[in-house]
Inverse folding.
């Protein structure tokens, strides 16, 4: 019996309500629609279920991979011989002492609407980012001048020893598409807290609509992708560099540099992880040779 079978047995005993899936296809859980089988996946519906599942895994020496909405993730074609904990069932939001607190699995679109419904402003930028709150804190997600770091006040997480810790946002060191959580994949973000100014509901809704329209115009939302493939290099825009190198439309298998926005690699139907990696390597080599700029993947990887 392998240790994932042992873990599944222990979880069924300890958390009979916990949803477990064995040999789960990761392409069903990534916005790229790419990725092979994950050995074991748990989908807790509450924070206590998640904590219990992680503790059971730790006792067997297994470190889970924490999956939000899979919108910034490229998973290997051969899959992931490990334990994935998907946070989407942890999605409660509440107001405490005029601060908004939400569980990490909540989609950013719902979080932004929850803020607007309470008359709070400042999260409109996040509405169109197709991630969960946990993924957004990890990546310090941002768009159109807004960024998580501007509104986040505290993060509660489970550390690698199984302790629940709350830190003020400044101690989580969020910088451009980076945070302490990208450095510490053993930490599970459980909850985050925001301090938001009073807003005007109608104004916030109009802003959300305007940003959605701008996204639709500029981004290839009709195709599966993981958003911007590369980070913005200091002093440049990745999309402009890629376009200037004539790489728009370049294709490896079914992975293609979007014709609409060169910063996006899209899946034209049957792209594999290998296709995406071969394409991103060609992009990196060409941009380095022709522009002298080293591009770095923004997209996180699993199972490579
Ligand atoms: C069409 C499209 C548009 C996009 N536009 C933007 C944009 O404008 N701005 C932007 O910043 N990004 C954008 N993205 C990328 C992506 O949506 C963000 O990075 C988002 O924050 C990722 O969240 P997620 O829940 O999907 O994370 P995932 O892809 O599930 O995970 C990303 C990383 O976060 C970690 N993680 C997730 N949840 C937790 C948790 N609870 N605890 C600990 N670690 C966790 C994962 O282990 C992984 O390392 C876009 C993506 C797409 C497909």
């Amino acid at each position: 019996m392998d240790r994932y079978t042992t873990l599944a047995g222990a979880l069924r005993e300890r958390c009979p309500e916990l949803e477990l899936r064995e040999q789960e296809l990761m392409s069903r859980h990534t916005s790229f629609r790419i990725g092979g089988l994950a050995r074991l996946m748990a989908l807790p519906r509450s924070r206590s279920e998640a904590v219990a599942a992680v503790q059971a895994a730790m006792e067997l020496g297994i470190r889970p991979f924490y999956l939000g909405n899979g919108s910034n993730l490229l998973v290997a074609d051969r899959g992931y011989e490990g334990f994935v904990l998907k946070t989407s069932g942890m999605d409660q939001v509440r107001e405490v002492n005029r601060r908004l607190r939400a569980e990490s699995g909540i989609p950013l679109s719902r979080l932004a609407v929850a803020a607007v419904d309470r008359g709070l402003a400042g999260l409109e930028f996040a509405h169109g980012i197709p991630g969960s709150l946990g993924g957004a804190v990890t990546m310090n997600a941002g768009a159109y001048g807004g960024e998580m770091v501007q509104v986040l006040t505290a993060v509660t997480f489970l550390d690698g020893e199984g302790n629940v810790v709350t830190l003020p946002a400044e101690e989580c060191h969020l910088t451009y598409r980076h945070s302490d959580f990208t450095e510490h994949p053993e930490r599970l973000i459980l909850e985050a807290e925001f301090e938001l100014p009073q807003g005007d509901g109608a104004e916030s809704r109009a802003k959300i609509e305007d940003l959605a329209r701008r996204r639709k115009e500029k981004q290839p939302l009709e195709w599966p992708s993981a958003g911007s493939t590369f980070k913005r290099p200091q002093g440049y825009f990745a999309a402009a560099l890629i376009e200037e190198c004539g790489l728009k439309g370049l294709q490896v298998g079914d992975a293609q540099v979007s014709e609409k926005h060169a910063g996006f690699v899209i899946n034209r139907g049957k792209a594999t992880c290998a296709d995406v990696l071969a394409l991103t390597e060609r992009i990196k080599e060409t941009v380095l040779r022709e522009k002298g700029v080293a591009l770095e993947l923004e997209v996180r990887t699993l199972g490579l």
The two ends are 25 Å apart (CA to CA). The chain has a mean pLDDT of 97.
